[in-house]
């Protein structure tokens, strides 16, 4: 039990809530932690709730009853989301990112924790009400984004492997077609990694025609799981709609053109805002 001044208690309670998104915290937890009456804790939470809403940090939900408490739901306001997506598009548009063959170098961005955490907050905002059980991605580049999203939604992350690992135990494997050359690949998921009938949010760093993500969708069918949503950091805008295998997804940025000859990259905001309105 800690005896703190109210100002210090407000700071620590705020930090406690921020570190436990989507987690129901009984009022007794705070009352016992600080040796304060529930009425005082409720007043503190009202102040924190007001700040969260005014600053666009999210919602603080109060659930009444014996099993009730408070739950912090991270959310990003439209203005803040636009600022982040514009920043992301600017970073992706750096001409030095062009690799031989017209590919785009993104690994450095995927290795920036603050950038991935903010992207995870955007996905947590748009998928907050989808009753998701687990986040899924395929190794390896999508892993930082998946964990960032999982942290914001307080959900576990499941990794789909390219090759079966003996340490994973028995697994389900499927073949899928991906890439501009329609190459055949294999992906595998341990039977212990995912419960039957789970609701899954698929997250990936890049999507072209959607072959890899469609492979994950097909793999989930083997577990009788439901796809609760799909979020991608960057989608290719050079793929015609009829060629895309996936149509229901949320993207933060769209790569519309890469010209190695003049070293020009054109990146625009993805469909996040239209999907956010729909949600």
From TrEMBL:
<dbReference type="Pfam" id="PF09182">
    <property type="entry name" value="PuR_N"/>
</dbReference>
<dbReference type="InterPro" id="IPR000836">
    <property type="entry name" value="PRTase_dom"/>
</dbReference>
<keyword id="KW-0804">Transcription</keyword>
<comment type="similarity">
    <text>Belongs to the purine/pyrimidine phosphoribosyltransferase family. PurR subfamily.</text>
</comment>
<dbReference type="GO" id="GO:0045982">
    <property type="term" value="P:negative regulation of purine nucleobase metabolic process"/>
</dbReference>
<dbReference type="GO" id="GO:0003677">
    <property type="term" value="F:DNA binding"/>
</dbReference>
<dbReference type="InterPro" id="IPR029057">
    <property type="entry name" value="PRTase-like"/>
</dbReference>
<feature type="domain" description="Bacterial purine repressor N-terminal">
    <location>
        <begin position="5"/>
        <end position="74"/>
    </location>
</feature>
<protein>
    <submittedName>
        <fullName>Pur operon repressor</fullName>
    </submittedName>
</protein>
<dbReference type="InterPro" id="IPR015265">
    <property type="entry name" value="PuR_N"/>
</dbReference>
<dbReference type="InterPro" id="IPR050118">
    <property type="entry name" value="Pur/Pyrimidine_PRTase"/>
</dbReference>
<dbReference type="Pfam" id="PF00156">
    <property type="entry name" value="Pribosyltran"/>
</dbReference>
<dbReference type="GO" id="GO:0045892">
    <property type="term" value="P:negative regulation of DNA-templated transcription"/>
</dbReference>
<keyword id="KW-0238">DNA-binding</keyword>
<dbReference type="InterPro" id="IPR036388">
    <property type="entry name" value="WH-like_DNA-bd_sf"/>
</dbReference>
<dbReference type="InterPro" id="IPR010078">
    <property type="entry name" value="PurR_Bsub"/>
</dbReference>
<comment type="subunit">
    <text>Homodimer.</text>
</comment>
<feature type="domain" description="Phosphoribosyltransferase">
    <location>
        <begin position="109"/>
        <end position="243"/>
    </location>
</feature>
<keyword id="KW-0805">Transcription regulation</keyword>
<dbReference type="InterPro" id="IPR036390">
    <property type="entry name" value="WH_DNA-bd_sf"/>
</dbReference>
């Amino acid at each position: 039990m800690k005896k703190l001044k109210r100002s210090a208690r407000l700071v620590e309670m705020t930090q406690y809530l921020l570190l436990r998104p989507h987690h129901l915290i009984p009022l007794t937890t705070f009352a016992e932690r600080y040796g304060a009456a529930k009425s005082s804790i409720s007043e503190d939470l009202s102040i924190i709730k007001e700040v969260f809403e005014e600053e666009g940090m999210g919602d603080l939900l109060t659930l009444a009853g014996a099993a009730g408490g408070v739950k912090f739901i991270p959310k990003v306001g439209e203005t803040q989301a636009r600022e982040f997506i514009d920043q992301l598009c600017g970073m992706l548009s750096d001409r030095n990112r062009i690799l031989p063959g017209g590919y785009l170098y993104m690994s450095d961005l995927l290795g920036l924790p603050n950038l991935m955490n903010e992207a995870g907050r955007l996905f947590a905002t748009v998928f907050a009400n989808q009753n998701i059980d687990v986040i899924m991605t395929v190794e390896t580049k999508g892993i930082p984004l998946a964990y960032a999203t999982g942290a914001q939604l307080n959900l576990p992350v499941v990794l789909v492997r390219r090759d079966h690992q003996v340490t994973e135990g028995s697994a389900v494997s499927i073949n899928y077609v991906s890439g501009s050359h329609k190459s055949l690949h294999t992906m595998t998921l341990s039977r212990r990694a995912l419960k039957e009938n789970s609701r899954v949010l698929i997250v990936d760093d890049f999507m072209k025609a959607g072959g890899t993500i469609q492979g994950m969708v097909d793999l989930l069918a083997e577990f009788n799981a439901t796809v609760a949503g799909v979020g991608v950091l960057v989608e290719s805008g050079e793929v015609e709609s009829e060629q895309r295998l996936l149509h229901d997804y949320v993207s933060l940025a769209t790569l519309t053109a890469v010209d190695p000859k003049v070293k020009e990259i054109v990146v625009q905001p993805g469909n996040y805002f239209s999907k956010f309105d729909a949600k």
